[in-house]
Hints:
Elements lengths: L2 E5 L6 H9 L17 E6 L3 H10 L3 E3 L2 E6 L14 H9 L3 E7 L15 H32 L3 H18 L11 H7 L10 E6 L2 H8 L6 H17 L3 E4 L1 H7 L4 H10 L6 H12 L2 E7 L3 E8 L4 H8 L1 H5 L1 E8 H7 L2 H6 L4 E3 L9 E7 L2
Parallel strand pairs: 1-4, 1-5, 3-9, 5-6, 6-7
Antiparallel strand pairs: 2-4, 8-9, 10-11, 10-12
Helix pairs in contact: 1-9, 4-5
Amino acid sequence: MLSAGIVGLPNVGKSTLFNAVTRTRNAQAANYPFCTIEPNQGVVTVPDPRLETLAKMSKSVRKVPAAIEFVDIAGLVAGASQGEGLGNQFLSHIREVDAIVQVVRCFESGDIHHVSGSVDAIRDIEVVNTELILADLASLQKRFDRLQKQVRTGDKQAKAESALLATLIPHLNSGKPAITLEVSPEEKLLMRSFFLLTVKPTIFACNVSESDLGALSAGETDTAAARHVAAVSSYVHTHLATEAVVISAEIESELVDLSPAEAAEYLSGLGVSESGVGKLIRAVFHLLGLRTYFTTGEKETRAWTIHSGDKAPAAAGVIHSDFERGFIAAETIHFDDLVQLGSFAKSREAGKLRIEGKEYLVKDGDVMEFRFNV
């Protein structure tokens, strides 16, 4: 199962957000730096209204959603790449996750201490990113120096790595993360062996207060939180080629103990249509390059997780390796077509239920039934 690490400066709401995402109280959330030391881990189901719709259509006994893992990682401070604070632990834990959710404080509060003494969202992002870049630079420079003896002997692998490092090191030195460097498919594959921090896909979570979220949902732009959020969205899009989502860890922590109906009523009272956590989980799922296809019947409707670009046999293999090994064909219809037509029988009559072969690229939202022979 792929994982996303929740990172950021101390006291920005990481542990509160982790508790909200995992719907637990497992992570201690307190108003002092380094409240979290050892990472907390939790498996999170991916909210997907399509699952409920298919289950009702098939009168399924049970529903099984897709899932990913979230990890709450200790706060980082300037100098972490040199071991400041819990820097070494932070960096080792972040190397183990597949993607990063960087929480950025976008709320003003005299009651919650900020490690830098004031709220400045862009400064905070740059502190975290600088430490990740410095850590990558240190490891790459050592690797480059070690390779030079092999390069002189004509070793082809060493030459390829050295050439990539000669491009990558100046890129990082200019303050840009590795993920923003344009590389060929071969270089991308080679870069995986470097185990870089800044090559991990990243999404930013703008953490706002309860009152701020209501105001933002109402379209207000002339507030401190709105200005912070706008600045973050613009910065990460321009400099890091990624996106930001707005959440309120404060509100989400209140929803943990409520039923879905009570949570919807609570959010409605704030003028908010959907929990920010739901949007964040789906965004992280797609950030990881994951997609969903469905199987459905009376016994079960299930969301299966595949990678973007997977073909039908690989999708079948997620259910069981025998399905992939003995793959013959996949009876396929997209969720939208199935719902519009109302049943499999009507879909078959309309010619929307297709038989796809081994080269079919599975799409997010496909509803499938596999034929195989082992």
